[in-house]
Amino acid sequence: MLRIWGRTNSLNVQKPLMALEEIGLPYERINAGLAFGVNDTPAYRAMNPNGLVPTIDDDGFVLWESNAIVRYLASAYAPGALWPLDARVRAGAERWMDWQLTTLLAPLNAMFVPLVRNPGSGDPAALEAARKTCEANFAILDALLARQPYVTGDTFGMADCCIAPVAHRWLNLPIARPDLPHLARWFELARGRPSAKVLELPLL
């Protein structure tokens, strides 16, 4: 059985959990990270030298980095479903997965830590700057979703697994947000998926 190390309130763990739930692949999850520890042990570092979560072990194949794990799960267990067979559709999905890592996540984390993990610890000006950046980024996503039902394209796929947990965090932060109807429609569709329970998890 596939094993995955990580805590359920980690956004990066939620991404492969969504893929696993969509596929219906049996797995064992081991709590790791923050209060759970484990990720600082020599045994864990031997699997993942960064000491971060998640890490998976699929019958002896060890992999870390959340988006790489989602790509692996989609290609190995859901070709033609989470993993688009058309090279251009797949490249488009992978582009948005990379955008999630390079653009979408950092300003969101800049708000998450002082607003949720360590309330009151942030600089108001920095928080406002991060909020405005997030608004602009999610507006880009909203514009994409005005043209197609899912981030991956016509069907729910691996890019949706990577971006939905980020949207879940954004939509549950204690801040004012603009009305983004296409993002809201897509998120409601995601909440009706087999992986929906991941999008109901508390932020902490």
The helix content is 40-55%
DSSP summary, beta strand count: 4
Q: Which strands sit side by side, in order, in the main sheet?
A: 2-1-3-4
Shape: globular
Tell me the major beta sheet: 4 strands, mixed
Question: What number of structural domains do the residues give?
Answer: 2
How much is the radius of gyration in Å? 17 Å
Order of helices and strands: EHEHEEHHHHH
Low-confidence stretches: none
Tell me the CATH topology of the largest domain: Glutathione S-transferase Yfyf (Class Pi), Chain A, domain 2
Give the helix tally.
7
CATH level-1 class of the largest domain: Mainly Alpha
Structural category is alpha+beta
- pLDDT average, as an integer? 96
Per DSSP, what share of the residues sits in E-state strands of 2 or more residues? Answer: 5-15%
Task: Specify the CATH architecture of the largest domain.
Answer: Up-down Bundle
Describe the structure.
The protein has 204 residues and is α+β, with helices and mostly antiparallel strands. It folds into 2 domains: 2-77, Glutaredoxin; 87-196, Glutathione S-transferase Yfyf (Class Pi), Chain A, domain 2. The protein contains 7 helices and 4 strands. The protein has helices at 11-23, 42-47, 66-77, 87-117, 124-145, 158-172, 181-190; strands at 2-5, 27-30, 55-58, 61-64. The chain has a 4-stranded mixed β-sheet, with helices on one face. α1 runs parallel beside α3 and α4 (87-117) runs antiparallel to α5 (124-145).
